[in-house]
Structure formats: C-alpha cells, structure tokens
Specification:
eight-stranded parallel sheet, alpha/beta, three-stranded antiparallel sheet, about 15% strand, about 425 residues, Enolase-like, domain 1
Amino acid sequence: MKITKVLASPGLTGFYFDDQKAIKRGVSKDGFALLGEPQTPGFNAVRQRGESISIMLELEDGSIAFGDCAAVQYSGAGGRDPLFLASDFIPVIEQELAPRLMGRDVVEFKPLAEEFDRLRHNDGSRFHTAIRYGVTQALLHAAALSKKTTMAEVVAEEYNAPLSAEPIPIFAQTGEERYYNADKAIIKKADILPHGLINNLVDKVGQDGEKLLDYVSWLKGRVEKLGGRDYRPILHIDVYGTIGQLFNDNIEQMASYLGRLEEAAAPLELRIEGPMDVGSRSKQIEALHNISRSVEQKGINVSVVADEWCNTLEDIKEFVDAGAGHMVQIKTPDLGGINNTIEAVLYARENGVGAYQGGTCNETERSAQICVHAAMATRPDQMLAKPGMSVDDAMMVVYNEMSRLQAILRSKG
C-alpha cells in the first residue's frame, strides 16, 4: 500500500508553550497569563498557545493515516529543539518531507519509521523532534490501515512484543492545582497520581521539608476519604530537584528524607521523580545511581524516577545501564520518532528498570491515542494521561482509547 498524497494542517495542543528561561528569571501572573519579556528565541510571550501539525497520508485505497507533530511545554530549553509553530514548519513538511514520502510503501512500519526519524535537511541538520514524532505516528497508522489491523498489533508483530492482556496503569497529573485536581484523579480512580509540580523549595517543599511531608499525608487522607476501601493508587511526585536543593545533594540525608516520605505515604506505594538536578548528564547518572543504592541499603521502599538529563533514547539507555533510578521517564516528543519510544520502553523492561511512558501536557489527543497503542504492545509500568492539566480530558482520552483497543483485541481472541 503506497502513499499517494501528503497533507498538513495546523492544530492546537492540550496546553501551552512556556518560556522556561524567562520564568526562571522571574515573571508575574495575571490570571492564567505569565507577564514579562520572553527570553527564548521564537517566543512572543512568556506563555503562548501550544501548536501542533497533523500529518495526513492518503493511501492508494483512499484511506487516510494521520499523526500529530507536537513539542513539550518548555520548548527551546535545556538543549531541546526550538519553539514549534505551525506556520514555521508546515512549509518544511510540504517542501522537504512530502516529496520523500510520496510513493513509499507503508506495509512495514519499523524500517520506514527509522528511516524518517534519521532524516536530515540538505544542510545535514536533523528534522525537528516534533516532525519526527508526528510523521512516525502517521506511518504507524498507515501500516495498520494497510494490514487492516490495530496499531498495537503492528508494534507487537514488528517488535516481537506480546500484547498486554491488562490495561496499562494510567498516571494523572494535577499541574498547579495539586489539591483540587488530586481529588479529581482520586474520584476517577487513577492508578497513579498526582505528579504535583513540586518545583519550588520554599513554597512547596518547605525549608525543613515539612510542606511536602504534609502534602503526602494529605494525599493519603484524601485517598482514604474519597477512594473507597479497595482503592490503592501509587503516589508519584515530581520534585524537580528540590530535595537535592534542601539537602545540598547529600545522598544520605536525601535518602533519610525519602524514608520519612515513605512513612507519610504508607500504606500507599511512593515514587519520587527527579529528586536532584546536578547539572549534567554524567553527574546526574552518578547521583541517581547513588541515591537508588542508598534507599535500597536503608530498606526504604521508595522508587527513584529519572527525569532531568534523561531525554533521548541514548540518554535512557545510559541511565538504565548505570542503574540510575528504579524507573526512567520516557518523554515521548523529546525522543523524536515514536519508534524510539517503543525501543526505550522495551530496553528498560529487558534490563529490569521501570518504564514510565510519559510525554507532555502539550500534546494532542491523537498523539496520546497512538501512545496508547505503543504502550499496549510494549507494556510500560505506567503511561501518562495526556494532553492537558485538568485530569478530566487527559484521563478520558487515554482511558477510552485503551478501553476501545482492549475490546477490539478481545473480539479477535
């Protein structure tokens, strides 16, 4: 089945682009807007609407496959590709990508995805991660259409990855509304919650760590009050390096504090993402290795999750090989092609490290749906509910796609 036409259309994402550099320098809030001068090239405001591009591939039989190009909330920061605006990149897709797609046979996903993920401009530079993310989604959908099957089955077949018989646990994130939206996640029976956006030492952790301890205790209480007797979610909190700030990256003191958090969460399981950020990939790998071994030696049942400096497939393999964390976040748009997300999950699982198929609030319903298919074939320990930050829409998109897929697979035996 060959591609006969390539189309591109502008779209909106489930959240916003935020200028991280400007935010770190200091901005003020006006309602939901962030006021100040943008500092990152491409931004015309500190917070502006998130944009996406749908890539549509018309096939010989008239069917249309599509995937969505999307980039993370903090685009242009931390070595990431620049701000992804539809008006800038639709011409790139139409002029450079479309001619290379025309006439290609889509029956096999993996080799074609790897080819287009490695694709380079005439000057030798790689295509934007968002474009690689979107075009490989479309190629996966095209392979499924050509075989009259689901995308999950395509991944399972081509990567020798048995399909999951059970739904993948869903992780709901609260954003700044860490109390109100936690209630939503509990009422909706999210498997994992709340992320919490603990990104400020003074306001959210406390000078002695007491604010975060209180928050964890509050979460446990809300689970008990709202969730019912049989509901036991995992608590997963992203602390953005603030625990390292609190203890000047002292491993023993940090591990002991994680023990106090474990006590506050008990009997619920606890995962702490990004306990420290030490400024480089090599140092981060060493630090996460050390704190992971420290909590194990102390008998502390808290899982350490790698996030900062763990962005690409190559990064993920290095963290996994070094035992730097009990779990790695696989931030889907940052990896480029969806084939890299598939490889990353499989690599982590094969090497005994937890796989968290994450991403960003700034994706679309389409990229989230395709991530569900990848997850059902590769079986990560959890996947992020996305896009958006309100809990409701993100859980709806991911849960419903997973439920539909399970019904289809059951019908096939």
